[in-house]
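U., I forgot to send this yesterday:
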Amino acid sequence: MIKLYNSLHREIQEFSPIEPGRVRMYVCGMTVYDYCHLGHARVMVVFDMVARWLRASGFDVTYVRNITDIDDKIIRRAGENGESIRTLTDRFIACMNEDAEALGVLKPDFEPRATDYVPQMLAMIGQLEKNGLAYQAGEGGDGDVCYAVRKFDGYGKLSGKSLEDLRAGERVDVREGKHDPLDFVLWKGAKEGEPAEAQWDSPWGKGRPGWHIECSAMGSDILGRHFDIHGGGQDLQFPHHENEIAQSEGAHQCAFVNYWMHNGFVRVDDEKMSKSLGNFFTIREVLKTYDAEVVRFFILRAHYRSPLNYSDAHLDDARGALTRLYTALKGHAGDGRLDWDESHAQRFKAAMDNDFGTSEAMTVLFDLANELNRGQDPRLAVQLKGLGGVLGLLQRDPVEFLQAAPGVAGDLVAESIEERIAARIAAKKAKDFAESDRIRDELKAAGIVLEDGPQGTTWRRA
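Result:
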């Protein structure tokens, strides 16, 4: 039985899907006006892991992760670049997909773009207006359409905030005409100077959808009005997810989502990651120095709800740890069927069933690697590779991983390394041990570790 922490009830609960054997899951994706950063990487990897484990547990999973391709920041960036909104968003969607693929993130079953679901958003806003929960704020029938927060009895149940404590959240424009400062925008009336491609016709005049209504409309259209899991970063719990509940339940008059999941923040050297602090890293920047599988391993090594502290030291440690696992697999094909009745697999399953406990599951992988190193039992290699594969790890040829880590040995390419190894072998044959040691030490200084064995000398990056 899988148990997970439900943010809605602030406790770990047994997972029971609405439809036996089937899971419908929606995760808030990226706003595509720039390259993805480490926070995006964590969302993508964490919920990829969740989908993988649910499928490994026998569930038929429908996984939706949306794309926000209309937004104030997108409009502004396209204008600054002198390009169309579509050109900008298409480019960064392609970059996002490249980053996700590098990190071993499987494609979601559906990846809807907000601009393709405007009719569904308009229908939902119209239903909210009919239900007395939406009103037009401007005069003359040409203003924003807002949600009347105080008319929805359940507002605050996800964040645990009372109405008295709440404030208008990020991306919520505070404009004249609102009935209450807490009310948020469902439909934004067109502003002077905005491009035509950022405007749609509506019963309330030309404009575009607010950010929150996008996810409510896309989620309900693809997964139904009531589905199992909704996920995203902890920063989205309020106001975005709180507003999604208000919109969806206010429009459909039924429960929206049974289980809410939120991954923790990414910090950099124990400080919040932000552009203003100068500690903001894109996925692409990090992958110039670290192998993408190392980054995935680093993200999954921590429990998804805990803060994730990024630093070069932590990435270096993750690289060393993953190297140990691949070193154990070296010389083993690892091919075969994973035995879930085996003791390590049972421990791994127990860890993952307990709120997706990847940190404890990783401990099982290292225990397997230690036993494999001691006994060289090929059955343990099958288990190690198979359990790693459940997390999207350890599926490469061990030698390829051990020799291909980026940014470690600078310009020292494989051909040059092999030439130096050959020169060292020749020096040893000539009993020139000083030269042999010099070559070994020179390679070690460059981050190359030589390993002498019965089959000759092999190498890996430190």
